Amino acid sequence: MGEKEKSGQLYYWIIAVLAFIIVFFSVGVAVTAYSATSYYVIEEWGITNTENSLLLTVRTLAAVVAMYLTSIYYKKLSIRVGLALGLLMGTAGYVVFALGSSMMYGYVAMTLIGFSHGFAGMIAISIIIERWFVKNRGTVLGIVTTASGFTTMIFPQILVRLVESVSLQFTFWMVAAMFGALAVISFLVIKNSPEDIGMVRLGEGQETQKSTKRSVTEKYAPNNFQLGLMLAACFLIGGMCYSQGQVRTLVFTSVGWSAESAATVLSVYGLTVILGKLIYGAVTDRVPMRKCTGVFFLFIAVSHALLGFAGASWFNMFWANAANVLYGIGGPVCTVGLALYGYEMCKDNDTTKWVRNYTVVYNIGALVFNPIVGVMADASGNYSSAFFMFAATAVIGAICTQAAYAGARRNSLTASGQK
User: Global pTM?
Assistant: First the structure.
């Protein structure tokens, strides 16, 4: 292999590494930075738990709007320019947080961060991976998506120490600077396509992998009722997976734990999420979703039920991390699972439409549950009741998905003349 060819090969992996770092920030930090520091924002700004939830709702709503507009956005702008602008929105959002001290600043900041999450998040990264990789595309995308888990594992400790040793404002300035630096780097490194620099996609023209499908795939024929059950489950996922992540540190600080201890638990949570995705992939490559989806939901239910007891005298770091491990195993059903639902539980074989439907309903669920959680916390003085609610929704989600999968599998067998 000549030096020029080696240099070309290296560039593919530079793209992959940069995509990982972008996900670390645009998906991970966009969520984790505020989650880890929300305790201090509540204290310094003098806002209530309900107002804190409203800020989270604004960010989620802005992200949903951006995701809807992404196809138009990237038709008007190249991936290179659009991605850089999306990251600069994150920069602007954290600058506003650094300057702010009231809800009005918070609303503006969260809107900008939500736009950054939508425009520079996973949709943009998927475009980059698709344009640059044929060979190992699935592997690259899988590794890249673990970046947000690493964010949760690493970043909370750093942010809390910065706040404690310097200030909340300085911490937000640092996050803003990181987003700004990444925007510049991505603009300089990312090209719109390999052809722009005389290259082709990695593996172009070579024999590709025999199949990108899961090795264990059953056929399903969901009717409208079963699709409705799946949409209901995805709505509940928005609360028990997305909304819970926004207040996971507050469930501990609201019952007297230090911010440092809560950040430590959140870091372990990030590690378990990474490992859980690997376990989830291995299991669902071997066991049909019909047989295992509900089990993953039940792992989440037990995890949340444990966190509901965070204020109990017997609850300590061991139980907090036990809840982390259980969620790490079950949690991927809320993230990776959405894509698999769209692949298997769709109508007229329109997988793209149903991946979008499930993702949108997931985000709507987050929008609904975010303010409910804040109201419950203000009423009770802590977040325990919210996590008991999440446990209940996980049980309902297990029932919905298992019923939908079983019915859709039965429909398929009947249609093919099998018993």
Answer: 0.70
